[in-house]
Amino acid sequence: MNDYFQERAEAVAAEVEKAGGKAIAVQADVTSFDAVKAMVAKAEAQFGKVDILVNNAGNAGANPDPDARKPFWETGPEAWNSFIGVNLYGVINCTAAVVPGLIERGAGRIITVISDAGRAGESGLEVYSGAKAGAAGFTRAIARTLGRYNVTANCVAIAATATPAIKARLEANPERTKKMLSNYVIRRPGEPADVANMVLFLASGASSWITGQTYPVNGGFSFAL
Question: What digits encode the pLDDT tens for the residues 111-130?
């Protein structure tokens, strides 16, 4: 167990409780189906059921292979699996763990946060791009399968978003950041709230007739038809 990530999760849960909601922090390796099932069981024990799943684990995981950032043809499956395990199998594992309950109740939402790399491709992140595209394809297929049970499944594709780790990198190199943002129609990085607002919409009753879609939240880095 990684104490740093557990502490961050507990801090978020405390914020939710302070705002009047209910929350628990449960740490799990999404690449392990057994760990995911245990996580979902804890959530169900606390809250009775899981109605909404947001697949938001990403990047190369908490403990990436040290070669994960090298050109993929210079590495091999161990490095590739740092991306595939989290971004594709993680989505499949978490979805598989909650689907039986959603089908039984005849309602639910599955929301998967992917990346514009999965839509447009990203040089230097070929395996990551492929894993995110795979997650989007899986989501479209599951949307077709679960629609008859009143369960929707959609993706949110994000570009550079100023999470604490990304924000530190952006501030460390202003010239590089300025060059990067020249590719964006809205010339600022995304904020976590930009992504959260789309997730909130897709989790709400306002989106009940929307499924199998991918929504870019990307400041105009790329456009969708």
Answer: 999 999 999 999 999 999 99
Q: Is 184 a catalytic residue?
A: no
- The radius of gyration computed from the CA coordinates of the chain, to the nearest angstrom, equals 18
d(CA 26, CA 10): 8
Task: For residues 48 and 149, give the distance between their C-alpha atoms in angstroms, rounded to a whole number.
Answer: 19
Q: DSSP string spanning 61-115?
A: -SS--TTTTS-GGGS-HHHHHHHHIIIIIHHHHHHHHHHHHHHHHT-EEEEEEEE
Model-level pTM greater than 0.85?
yes
Residue-wise pLDDT for 136-183, tens only, equals 999 999 999 999 999 999 999 999 999 888 888 889 999 999 999 999
Catalytic residue among 128, 149, 184, 215: 128
- Strand order of the sheet with strand 52-55? 52-55, 108-115, 151-158, 214-217
Nearest of 48, 50, 68, 51 to residue 60 by alpha carbon: 68
Q: Hey, CA dihedral for 21, 22, 28, 31, is it positive or negative?
A: negative
